[in-house]
Design goal:
By secondary structure, this protein is mainly α. It starts with a helix and ends with a helix.
Length: 207
């Protein structure tokens, strides 16, 4: 019922249905699932305070369920959007602790890193990306991570940024991040760095 109401964009109705389901559930996995879906309905209904309250309730259900990591990832998104960086960092650390080998750790780190790039803290972005073991990255994740790593490195290490953009362009998997990387390399922001990189590489070839 809740899924049908959600699909029809009757978010308030779906919210109440999911909350009733959570209250009646005797199984922890289902209780966490109902609470997470209720949080999504509350979010789309525009109730931010209730959204976080329900996410927190889903995370607090004993056990580590798919809804636990989903709620944590969503709470990271919510908190970085509200510029509650310390709270988001705490959530990311908890996500890595309870689900170190889950793909949710990839999504959480990427969410946090993108926010740090947007807020002008590239070192924190790189630090977050570095917490993800390479083995967790899918073939589609790899060029995306390389692209955002390059974006974060632009103002820190032009040489490393250039190399990371090249990694995106050399990806064997077709991805729109290759287009973004080419566009970035052609941008005015990267032009001086690209010229310096080419000069440095020419000098190395002549040695």
């Amino acid at each position: 019922i809740g899924r049908s109401q959600f699909g029809e964009e009757k978010y308030e109705d779906a919210l109440q249905t999911y909350r009733r389901g959570a209250a009646e559930a005797t199984d922890a996995k289902w209780r966490a699932t109902f609470l997470f879906h209720a949080s999504r309905a509350a979010q789309l209904a525009g109730n931010d305070a209730l959204t976080e309250q329900l996410m927190t309730a889903a995370i607090a259900v004993p056990g580590h369920w798919p809804a636990t990591t989903a709620a944590l990832t969503q709470r990271i998104r919510t908190r970085v959007r509200q510029r509650r960086i310390a709270d988001a960092a705490t959530d990311l650390a908890l996500l890595r602790k309870i689900a170190p080998n889950d793909h949710a750790a990839v999504e959480g780190a990427l969410t946090y890193a993108l926010a740090m790039i947007a807020y002008g803290n590239p070192r924190a972005a790189i630090s977050a990306l570095n917490t993800v073991p390479p083995a967790l990255l899918t073939k589609m994740d790899q060029p995306e991570f390389a692209y955002w790593r390059a974006r974060a490195l632009e103002t820190i290490d032009a040489h490393a940024a250039f190399a990371s953009y090249l990694a995106v362009l050399r990806s064997p998997v077709p991805t729109h991040f290759a287009y973004f990387a080419r566009d970035r390399l052609d941008s005015a922001a990267m032009a001086p760095r690209l010229a310096a990189e080419i000069t440095q590489r020419d000098a190395e070839v002549k040695k």
